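The instructor's notes for this session suggest beginning with a concrete chain rather than abstract definitions. Hand out the sequence below and ask the class to guess, before any prediction is shown, which regions might be ordered.
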Amino acid sequence: MRYFRPLIHQAVGHRPSPYLSPDTPIIKLNSNENPYPPSPQIFTVLKNFDGEWLRRYPDPYAQEFCTAAA
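After discussion, reveal the predicted structure:
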């Protein structure tokens, strides 16, 4: 029993870009690489960031927003 069409078996898989050493002057923007370090301000923000709310889905009815907007 075959699960895939022959065309699928003939397809060439993804070939990732070659790894570039860190000292190369090439910046691979297509890989979302950033040639600059984070802003020093971001470290201050992250030290004081309370990520507890990130582990839960938001209120589907947006009660807090609806109350503030009303």
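Then share the key points. The mean pLDDT is 86. Residues 40-47 form the longest helix (8 residues).
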